[in-house]
Design a protein that fits this description.
Layout (H helix, E strand, L loop, with lengths): L2 H10 L8 E7 L5 E7 L1 H10 L3 E4 L4 E4 L8 E8 L6 E7 L35
Parallel strand pairs: 1-6
Antiparallel strand pairs: 1-2, 3-4, 5-6
Helix pairs in contact: 1-2
Amino acid sequence: MSTDEIERAVASATYGDDGLLPAIIQEESTRDVLMLGYMDAEAVRRTLSEGRVTFWSRSRQEYWRKGDTSGHYQHVRAAAFDCDSDALLVTVHQTGPACHTGAHACFDVHPLAPVLGEPGADAEGAGDD
């Protein structure tokens, strides 16, 4: 992406009241959802321009680039905003585990067993999305 394209993308995002945008990280090869992080405009800019995923740490109030301390890098392969431009999907080549616990993905740590819904069971509500 050119600098102008990156700046247009950063400006087109819809950030929350806290100035942050949720960023879903997906592994290119497996399509696994690895983690969810938050980005402000600068983190989006860095991610799109540097080819490495950068987040804004809400707890530490600082930027962190995935892999700088752990060696578990996320190399950007693609990025797309959702239909409202208020969430970002970043497809990555993941090196090592994505989760700080050592799990492959953050969503592997606390799996749930929800009641499974059946497609078509509530057709009267269809189209309400």
